[in-house]
Structure formats: structure tokens, C-alpha cells
Amino acid sequence: MNRRRFLAGLGATGVGAAATIGCRSAAGPKPAARPAAGQTKPPNVVLIMTDDQGYGDLGCHGNPHIKTPNLDWLHAHSTRLTNFHVDPTCSPTRSSLMTGHYSTRTGVWHTIMGRSLLGAHEVTVADAFAAGGYRTAVFGKWHLGDNYPFRPQDRGFHETLVHGGGGVGQTPDFWANDYFDDAYWHNGVPEKFKGYCTDVFFAGATRFIEANKDRPFFVYIPTNTAHGPYNVAEKYSKPYADMGVRGGRAKFYGMITNIDENVGRLQKRLAELGLQQNTIFIFMTDNGTAAGDAGGMRGKKGSEYEGGHRVPFFIRWPAGLKALGDITQLTAHIDIMPTLLDLCGVEPPKNITFDGASIVPLLKGAEWRERTLLVHSQRIDHPQKWRKSAVMTERWRLVNGKELYDLKADPAQKKDVAAGHPDVVKKLRGAYEKWWDGLSVHFDQYCRIVLGSDKENPSRLTCHDWHTANVPWNQGHIRNRKMFANGPWAVEVSRGGRYEFTLYRAHPEAKFALAADEAKLKIGDVEVTKTADSSAISVTLAADLKPGKAMLQTWLTDKASGKSRGAYVVMVKRLPA
């Protein structure tokens, strides 16, 4: 279903009706969700997803070093999906979680390169919950776009508190953020916060819950931890170093211990508010471990093998679900949106076809059907068939279209048995071919940043979203004066008129000199060149533009040396008529 048609059907108070969160109707749409049996209001939802924490990075999963008492308690009192799969990296998993669609269908198959932007046509779980009368909020790592129409406030969330890009300290983030006392976007406005990033995000979620305790809420807490860089207070990392855990892993484990503390505090506050019984509380992670323990599985983050995409998933709802312990049937990120809407009685968008399925029958102990699911890791501008892929059934894993593993007999995926089971290989290859044919129609399309819209004017573009192989995606690249990179943005000019483009060598706050005496801009068939002051931190060019889709690229050139790079940050402003 087209997202614009869905939002239009909500009326003036619906999701996306206002240009900013502050303009959104405080009352919102009338509740459409149904309460659970014996409850006076529909269940709340708290969905926590940590970053780069793998299946083995929990005490309850047998890790001999890590201390996660609150998550261990949650594990003991939850239903656990022990055969739950996501994509092997950040943004693709997030796009599937938000939409119930395979990531590549949403336009997301990388974490940078303009391929982490969630297609504007997609209806999100936050859109649906907001339409159903819920208050919605996100705190932490969005990583599905930093510009209109991809920001979380454009995608159904009433309150947003997020950092930029895929991690604190990456290129779209505020300059010099380092996890401590940083600036984040709060409802689209920069705001400085005291404290450690994870603590700040959980504190924001707690305040939102307190303010909305008398109405149903959907709270999404995707932490940026335990993603690198591994910055954490010594009180969390030192105990691991003292027990012999070396280097970055001690800090990685310390970040997870901090997450665990925050989960415990949030659970305690929900109980104090009388909300714990009727809150669906979910803990999961976004991909396999980056620096920890893969839990005996092959592969880690980014891998097509089990350790890259099989992750923890705990769900607890005392008022509505009996804790069933371990559920071993095959499930995935694409199942979560349809499942949550089903559990909460929220009407799904009409005419939408999920790639996933509601697993409510499974959560209530019913028999479950055999199914085939797929994940892959592309991490390039245009997807390639069979690249880093896994076709999954309850028993089998077909990896990269060639290797076959019997998970029942060989959970560590040590022995390729493809030669002995050609019928299975053929069947699973056929499933992939059908899946690929349904996705590949989107591969030549771009998710375009919209320029000149009243919802974001000016727009702040960063090289994180260039469509090129050499992307300066973190601020370390920006600081490297010897790095010369360039690439185009895929954009759409929303309204014709006069536009101003201010080009920076780095973030304006960094005050880096341009180190170039010529600036050039090309957008579609419009080109502008201007002499620049090499010692200045910016140069502004102007152009008259027609509405429409285009590729935008800039050049900052030192004519004496012949060296040139793109402007790593560009402010684009539509001027008044």
C-alpha cells in the first residue's frame, strides 16, 4: 500500500499531518485498538533493540564472563524465540522491523551510501500504532535516514530523541559527540544532554512513559550501544578487564552491562506506575555480535552464517501471554509488525501484504507451519544475486546458493552437505529465485532526499548518503585531511525556485578551512562554479531549479595541486519567492 494514501486516510490529526511534532494534534486520532481480556485499555508496547550484541552476549545464554542480571531475569520470565533471525547488519534489520517487509523491498540494503534510507512509500509500525490511538516514541539509533521524508518524525513517531547516522560519532551526528554529554535531535531540534548516551535514551523513554501512563503507548528504544567505538565508563569495563577479558571486548561487555542496568530500571519504573502487567516488553538485538561471543555459532556481524543473523528475542506480557519458555520454530524480524498489531488489536494498513506473519498463534502455544525465510547482506549500491545470502527452513540453511547445512545435525555449520542433498538445494534455490524476482524490480530506484519542502528547509546533507564506494561515513574520515572522496546524492526538488547551497569541508562546528579555491555544484543539468576563499569554512552557491528528481554533486578543488573532494556537508535552502 502507498504510504501517502494510508496517511491521507487518517485525516488532519493523523500521522504525518503536521510539519513538526510540536504542531501535531495533542489528542491524536480516536483509539481503534481493543483491550486485552480483563484489561481496561489496550496493552502498551516497549521494544528494546540493542546494537551489535549477539546471541552469546548474555549471561542467560551461557556467557561465562558477562553480567546481565536484569536481562537474565527477563529471559526467565519471558517467551523466548530461540530461532529468531534478522539481517546481518544494522539498517536492513531496522527497516524490516519497522515495516514487516524484507529490507531490500524497503530500499534498505546497506548502512551508508544512500541505501539506509527507508522508502517513503513504506507504512511503519509507528504509523499504524499512531493511527490506532497510541502515543509513539523513539529513543536512540534510528539509522533509516536523517533528512525528510526519512526521519522518525516523518514516519509515525510523536516524540523522537535520536543521534545522527548509524552511530554516535558518525558523519551525520553532531560534531565531536563521544557518548558522554552529547547533543541529539529531540523532536527535530538540537538539544544538549548530560550523561552517557544509553542512560539519556532510557531516561527519555521513562519520561515519555510517565507522561503517557494513562493512554496506550508504543516506545521503541534502539540503543546505539554496544556498537563501536567502545566508549564506556571505566566502572563498567574494569571488572571485565580484571577477570582477564582483553582489549575492546572488556569495554563491549561493559556497555552491555550498562544496558542491562537500564533495562532493570525501566522494568522497575513500569511496575511502580502499575503498567508492567499490561505492557508487552520485548528485548532483541539487530545482528550478530561485533566484538563478543557468537554462542557457538559460525560467523559474527555481517556474516551470512548463523552467527551473523540469529539473535536473542524475549517477549513478556503478563496480562496477555503465558510465558512458554523456548519456542524453537523459525521466526524473523519481518514477523514483528504484524504480530504487535495483532496482539494490540491495531488495524493493519488496508491492502498491505506483509512478508512476515503474525506469530500470535505460536506465542499462544498453537501448532506452527513450516516456512522458508531469507536474509542477505549486500552492502553495495546495487544488489548482486546470491551475495552473502541464507535461505532458511527449520532444518536447512542454503548459504550463498551453494553450501547446504543441516542445522539439526550440525548447528555450528561445519559440514557442507550440498552434494548429498541436491533435491533440497534445488528447492531452496527455487525459493530464493522467486524471492529475488519479487525484490529486484526496486533495485534501480533511489530513496531520494527531498529538498525545499516546508517540512525541512534548509536541509543538511552529509556525505554519509553519497552513492559511491568511498564514503566518509564517520567523523574520523572527516578529520583526515588526506582523504579525498566524492559522490552524488539522490534528491528530489519539491518546489521550483531559487536555492542556496552552502558547501563545507566538514561540519560547520569544526571550522575546518575549505582548502580549495574553486567550488562547483551540479544538480541535474544545472551547473554552477564559483571562486572560493581557501581559508574560509564555507562557500555559498545559488541556482534556479525546477521541481523533479536529480543527482546532486559538489566539488571543492585546489587548482594549484589539482586535488578535489566533495563538500562533506551541504546546507540546501529554498529561498522565499
Write up what this structure looks like.
- The chain contains twelve helices and 26 strands.
- The chain has 577 residues and is an alpha/beta fold.
- The chain folds into three domains: 44-368, 3-Layer(aba) Sandwich (Alkaline Phosphatase, subunit A), CATH 3.40.720; 374-442, Arylsulfatase, C-terminal domain (2-Layer Sandwich); 449-574, Jelly Rolls.
- Strands 7-6-5-4-8-1-9-10-2-11 form a ten-stranded mixed β-sheet, sandwiched between helices.
- A hairpin with a 2-residue loop joins strand 21 (518-523) and strand 22 (526-531).
- The protein is globular and about 70 Å long.
Notable traits:
globular; alpha/beta; 6-stranded mixed sheet; Arylsulfatase, C-terminal domain; Jelly Rolls; Alkaline Phosphatase, subunit A; 577 residues; single chain
Set out the fold topology:
Layout: H1 3-8, E1 44-50, H2 69-76, E2 79-81, E3 84-85, H3 90-99, H4 125-131, E4 135-140, E5 159-162, E6 183-186, E7 189-192, H5 197-211, E8 217-222, H6 234-242, H7 247-272, E9 279-285, H8 306-309, E10 313-316, E11 325-327, E12 331-332, H9 336-344, H10 360-363, E13 373-376, E14 389-392, E15 396-399, E16 403-406, H11 422-439, E17 449-451, E18 459-462, H12 475-479, E19 489-493, E20 497-504, E21 518-523, E22 526-531, E23 538-545, E24 548-558, E25 563-565, E26 569-574
Parallel strand pairs: 1-8, 1-9, 2-11, 3-12, 4-5, 4-8, 17-19
Antiparallel strand pairs: 2-10, 5-6, 6-7, 9-10, 13-14, 14-15, 15-16, 18-26, 19-24, 20-23, 20-26, 21-22, 21-24, 24-25
